[in-house]
User: Which sequence fits this backbone?
């Protein structure tokens, strides 16, 4: 797609958005197109290592929290409140988070909010160690989730300031790979620690995981604090309803951004089979808890491998079509998984879903950041986080509801309902691709991702 000087919603800026000072020659890697050339960028490498530490800690935290809540309450509803507690801050603080990310130093916002989240995690560790009432855990979780809502907006808008525009798609691929690696290693590490603590007769085996997670956040704060690049705010805007809604207005005006956010939102909402994996492991594939762990790992492993391959290839030349076809493949693989009764084939389909999802994530995140002027990136990123984050949580609710309702409705068990839920979700995802391609033809015509 040809760039233009005017930074309209439809056109990417003619040059990458930069911070207040030119980068030193060793700070931006752009002369070598090799897959690892970007790691010579000091600031990006510091950020990437810090993000790996933070994501590992967060994945460990999430696994330990779910285990402790269920262990102490024995209630599925209590687990549901975990998701609800994390969703409420997203609705309450997404707009202010975007405004803060555009009007204050993004690096400082990331460090401060991560520190608050780490403090909330230490609070949960204390509650766990003291066996204090569970509602106190939800209070600390709410505080940590509110801080992360501000951090996510600043973090998404901060990455384009670290690299040259030509290198940004590869930076997104590295970022995605780091997240998927943490999704594989984090829960496993937390499980080993909890099992070890339990064997040593600890009354609070999850508390150590929370402390490690908080320390990982401190590592992130230190490494990001060492980054030289800064986000310069040319003129601060007052926080008014009009400025808060800037992100929504920009997304609505930019047909490409609106289309890809809509596509990803519905794909996540309809096509996610993760919430029903326990049913498949126990009553369809008959592989038990060990098989469930393997099934859960298949998605991030597929994503990680795809990110590795994409990082060793040139940027996508027909990014719009690649995005649409990736979501089609995601839908087809979801349908195939839903119908499968063979464990290894099911594993392959989940692996395929993970790989296809990585293509979608890289294209979407790259285009959202490249097509948004730097002074609006925080607010647009906040809108993107709101839609994708809530669709993740609501998608699990939708899958469970369809399984619960349609199984008995058609005269069968909830197991049959789970199959209906997954298959219909995959078909719905593919229908959404067709609708998006027709409504927003600009997406399928979008060219090189660089």
Assistant:
């Amino acid at each position: 797609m040809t760039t233009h000087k005017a930074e309209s919603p439809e056109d990417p800026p003619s040059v990458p958005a930069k911070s207040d000072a030119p980068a030193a020659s060793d700070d931006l890697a752009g002369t070598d197109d090799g897959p690892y050339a970007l790691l010579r960028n000091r600031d990006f490498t510091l950020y990437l290592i810090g993000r790996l530490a933070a994501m590992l800690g967060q994945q460990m935290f999430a696994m330990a929290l779910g285990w402790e809540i269920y262990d102490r309450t024995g209630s599925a509803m209590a687990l549901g409140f975990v998701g609800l507690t994390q969703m409420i801050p997203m609705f309450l603080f997404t707009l202010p988070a975007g405004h803060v990310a555009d009007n204050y130093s993004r690096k400082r916002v990331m460090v401060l909010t991560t520190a608050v989240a780490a403090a909330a995690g230490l609070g949960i560790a204390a509650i766990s160690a003291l066996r204090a009432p569970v509602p106190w855990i939800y209070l600390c979780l709410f505080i940590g989730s509110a801080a992360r809502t501000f951090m996510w907006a600043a973090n998404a808008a901060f990455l384009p300031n670290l690299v040259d525009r030509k290198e940004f798609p590869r930076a997104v691929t590295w970022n995605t790979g780091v997240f998927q690696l943490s999704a594989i290693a984090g829960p496993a590490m937390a499980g080993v620690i909890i099992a070890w603590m339990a064997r040593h007769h600890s009354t609070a085996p999850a508390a150590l995981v929370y402390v490690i997670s908080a320390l990982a956040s401190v590592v992130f704060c230190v490494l990001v604090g060492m980054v030289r690049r800064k986000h310069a705010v040319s003129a601060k805007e007052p926080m008014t309803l009009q400025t808060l809604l800037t992100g929504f207005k920009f997304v609505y005006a930019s047909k490409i951004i609106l289309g890809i956010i809509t596509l990803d939102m519905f794909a996540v909402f309809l096509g996610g089979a993760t919430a029903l994996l326990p049913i498949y492991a126990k009553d369809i594939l008959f592989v038990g808890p060990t098989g469930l762990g393997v099934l859960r790992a298949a998605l991030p492993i597929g994503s990680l491998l795809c990110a590795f391959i994409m990082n060793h290839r040139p940027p996508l030349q027909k990014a719009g079509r690649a995005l649409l076809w990736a979501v089609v493949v995601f839908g087809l693989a979801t349908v195939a998984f839903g119908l499968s009764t063979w464990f290894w084939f099911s594993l392959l389909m989940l692996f395929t879903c993970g790989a296809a999802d990585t293509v979608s994530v890289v294209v979407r995140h790259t285009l959202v950041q490249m097509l948004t002027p730097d002074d609006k990136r925080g607010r647009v990123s906040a809108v993107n986080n709101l839609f994708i984050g809530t669709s993740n949580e609501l998608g699990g609710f939708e899958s469970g509801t369809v399984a619960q309702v349609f199984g008995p409705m058609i005269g069968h068990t909830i197991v049959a309902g789970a199959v209906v839920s997954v298959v219909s979700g995959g078909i719905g995802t593919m229908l959404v691709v067709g609708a998006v391609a027709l409504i927003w033809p600009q997406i399928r015509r979008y060219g090189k991702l660089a």
